[in-house]
Amino acid sequence: MLEARDITLSFGRHRVLDGVSLSLRPGEVLGLAGPSGCGKSTLARVLALLLRPSSGTVSVDGTVVKGWRHRAPQRTAIGLIFQQPRLAVDPRFTLLDVIAEPLRAARRPLDRAHELAEELGLTPELFGRRPHEVSDGQLQRACVARALVLEPRYLICDEMTTMLDASTQAHLVGRIEAYRERTGAGVLAVSHDAELLHRWSDGNVRDWNPAPAPARNADPAPAS
Amino acid sequence: MKLRVDGLSVRFHLPGADVHAVTDARFELREGRCLALVGESGCGKSVMAHALLGLLPGNATVTGHARLDDLPGGGSLDLVTAPEKVLARQVRGRLIGLVPQSPAAHLTPVRTARSQIAETLRELGRTGESADTLAERAGLSPRDLDRYPHQLSGGMAQRVANALALAGDPPLILADEPTTGLDRPLVDATMAELRRLCDEGRAVLVITHDLRAAERVADEIAVMYASRIVELSPAEPFFSGPRHPYARGLLDALPSRRFVPIPGQPPELTRLPDGCAFLPRCSSATSACERQPPLHAGPAVNGQVVNGQFVEGQFVEGQFVEGQPVVGGQPALDGQAAGNGQTSMSRKVACHHA
C-alpha cells in the first residue's frame, strides 16, 4: 500500500496541501479529480517521493519514507508520468535513451527498453530521434515506457493525456491497464477530466474540492 | 465576409526531405458560423492557421488560395499571395484575430494586462476605444486589468487573450488550440465565449484535438489526417454518425464511448503514401484504397436549421419530423433551402468506402 497521512506542504506563504491523506492499494486504479490549482500535482509529487512534505508521513508497503528524491531507496518502486512530456525529458536524449535512462541508473541490462518501446507502439525508426523530432503523442509514449521500465509497484499518472488526442489517450490507458493486470501494480490517475477517470477506474474516483480559503494568495479571484 | 480556402497546400523544405504539412485543403467559412478543425497532434492543423496569417517560416512553400471575400470595405483578398505589408497592415488583428495556445504564456510577463491591451488598441489605430470597454466586452472587470499575467487565473488570462484578439474588431477569429491544459469548466467557458463571438456575427475557426470541446462550439467539423481534410460535415450528424473510418475511430476512442484506440500510428509527413494515408490502420481497406480518395460530396442530409442548430429530419406533408434523415439523392449546396423551409447539407468525405 502506498499511503500518505496528514500531508501538509507550503510553498513560501502559500499552503498548498493541508492535512491530506490518501492511500493506494496494489492492483487498484484510483482516480483523483479536482479543478486546476487545487494541489493534485503537488500531492502526486509527494507520493512519488519527489517533494518532501512540511509535515505528515508517506509509507510504501508499510515502510515509512525517510529520505526523498535520490536519497529515497523506495523511489524506483513508484513510477510517475507527467502532463507535458516535452518538459519531462532531456532534449539531448534519443527516445531510446529516454526509456533506458532508469535502467542505466539502476545498472540493469538495457534490452527491456527495446521491448517496451515496441509495446508502446514506437517503431524502430523513432528510436534514434530526439524529442524535437517527434510529436507530443510519440514523446508521451516514450515517457510511459520510461515509467514502466523498472516495473514499479505503484504508478502515478499526473494529467498524462491532457495534451493528447482521443486515440492516443485510449492507447496509453490501455497499455497501463495491461501492465497493472500483469504485475498487480496500483495506479493513481490524476486528472480534471472526471469522465476519463470514471471510465478508467470504474467509478473509483476521489473528488477533491479543498476549501478555497488558504489556497494561492497570488490568485485573488477564482477561475470561472 | 467569407473565408474560402481552395486547394491550399503547405510544404516545408528540410535538408533531404519535404514535409507535407497541408495538402489540398478546401473549405468555406461564413460570418456567424463556427468551423472546428480537429485531428491529432502533428497532422498539420496548426500549420493551416499559421498559413492563413502568413506566419510560416522561410522554408515553407504555400500554394492554392485562401480568399477573404466580401470584405467590410468591399473587394476581396488572397491571403496566400498578399505581400507581407498587406498582411501586417490590413489582415493581422484587423481582419483576422488570433486566440493563441496557452494565453498565459502569450502575454508579456512584466506588463499589466491593461498596458498590453492599450498598446494593441494604439497599434491598430483604434483610439476611440479604451482598454476598459474592450475588457468589459470580453467579460473582464476593469479592475482585473491592473494585474500582471502571473496574477491572473487561467480563465482571466484566456479573457485577456480574447480581448487582444478582439481589439481590431476582426470579422474572423482564429483560435489555435485555445483550451490546451485548461480544466473542463474552463474549456466549456472558453468554448461558450467563442460561440458568443460567433453569434455576434463573426466567423470562428477553432483548431483543437479535443472532440468534446469541438462538439460544444462548432456548426461544422473538418477532420484532418496526415495533412488532408478527410471529412467535412455539419456537427450534429458528424457526432451521431461519422463517415470516415478515421473519424469513426477517433470518436470511438472517447472515454464516454468505446474507449478503444485506433491501431497503429499516423504516417510520417515526410513520407506520405500515394494512396489513402489511413490504409495501414483501416479495417475496411481494399485494393481501391491504393488510389488517393478525393474529398467527394456524399449523399445529402436533410433537415432544418432550428435556432442556429442543424436538426436532421424530413418534411412529411408539410410537417417537419425530427430524426429519420433521408439519406440519398443529390447533395444540395451547403445550407441552401430546398423548399418548404427544408435545408440540405452535404457531407464530404475522402474515402472510397464511405
State the helicity of chain A in percent bands.
Answer: 25-40%
Question: Tell me, what's the shape of chain A?
Answer: globular
Overall shape of chain B: globular
User: Spatial order of the strands in the main sheet of chain A?
Assistant: 6-7-8-3-9
Unreliable parts of chain B? 325-342
Spatial separation of the terminal alpha carbons of chain A = 37 Å
Question: What is the CA-based Rg of chain B, rounded?
Answer: 21 Å
Order of secondary-structure elements of chain A: EEEHEEEHHHHEHEHE
What does the largest sheet of chain A look like?
5 strands, parallel
Q: Let me know the number of strands of chain B.
A: 15
Q: Count all strands of chain A and give the number.
A: 9
The total count of helices of chain B amounts to: 10
> What's the rounded overall pLDDT mean of chain A?
90
Regions with little confidence, pLDDT below 50 for 5+ residues of chain A: 212-224
Q: Can you give a write-up of this model?
A:
Chain A has 224 residues and is α/β, with parallel strands linked by helices. Helices cover 32% and strands 23% of the residues of chain A. Chain A is built from 7 helices and 9 strands. In chain A, the strands form 2 sheets. Chain A has a 5-stranded parallel sheet with strand order 6-7-8-3-9, with helices on both faces. In chain A, a hairpin with a 2-residue loop joins β4 and β5 (63-64). In chain A, α2 (95-105) crosses α3 (111-119), α2 packs parallel to α5 (136-148) and α3 packs across α5 (136-148). Chain A is globular. Chain B is of the alpha+beta class and 354 residues long. Helix content of chain B is 25%, strand content 29%. Chain B is built from 10 helices and 15 strands. Chain B has helices at 45-53, 84-91, 103-106, 113-123, 131-137, 154-166, 184-199, 211-217, 235-240, 245-252, and strands spanning 2-14, 17-30, 34-38, 60-69, 77-78, 96-99, 172-176, 203-208, 220-225, 228-234, 296-306, 309-316, 319-322, 336-337, 343-349. In chain B, the strands form 2 sheets. In chain B, strands 3, 6, 7, 8, 9, 10, 11, 12, 13, 14 and 15 form an 11-stranded mixed sheet that branches. A 4-stranded antiparallel sheet of chain B has the order 2-1-4-5, covered by helices on one side. In chain B, a hairpin with a 2-residue loop joins β11 and β12 (309-316). The radius of gyration of chain B is 21 Å and the shape is globular. In chain B, 48% of the residues are buried.
